[in-house]
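Hallway conversation turned thread

IA: we were arguing at lunch whether anyone had actually written out Putative membrane protein end to end. Turns out nobody had. So, for the record, here is the sequence (204 residues) and right after it the structure tokens. Reply here if something looks off.
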Amino acid sequence: MLKQLRNYLITGLIALLPLIATIYIILTVINTVDSIFSPLVKVLVGKEVYGLGFILTFLIILGVGIVAKNMLGKKLIDFGESILGRIPLVRNIYTTIRQIINSLFLQNKTAFRKVVLIEYPRKGIYQLGFLTCEGIGEVQEKTAKEVVNIFIPTTPNPTSGMLILVPREEVTYLDMSVEEGLKLIVSGGTLAPKESIKEDKHGN
């Protein structure tokens, strides 16, 4: 009973951690902005403005987004990143966070390159997966065959799964789009990709 309760607590904690972290970061930013600007606004206006941190945070994020969309803004961001890249400790932290954010938000549309079929977990059983990257770096150097990185998603939640490295010649590339592959997985196989209707040998 205690073991089962512990498993429930751990599972619940893992499920809530992303939400808790997101809320914590947002509230921290809002409180920081509020603590910086509230005293100044109180002096200018003569009274405390409630919700100022939230409003200013929203406007700052919106403003940065607008600036980052134009050419001058991109150059300024690149210049700032080049400066951060010269600071040893800051460089490591910033680069890591930047890579995580890019993989989660900016590259999610191209993270899955192709829908593939592999025999896994054993011969004769097929799994639908997504090609994410060619085998590179130390992994490729220490394998006898050329491998590719395949993400095997779970059903019906394709955001979780496992990464496996498969020899290229053992991968079957499918014609379906990534979107069709995701629909097939989320639906548990009930939403098959659209195919042209062909007559069978009996003309049916």
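OS: looked through it. The beta strands are 114-119, 126-134, 147-153, 161-167, 172-173.
IA: good, adding that to the notes. The chain is about 55% helix and 15% strand.
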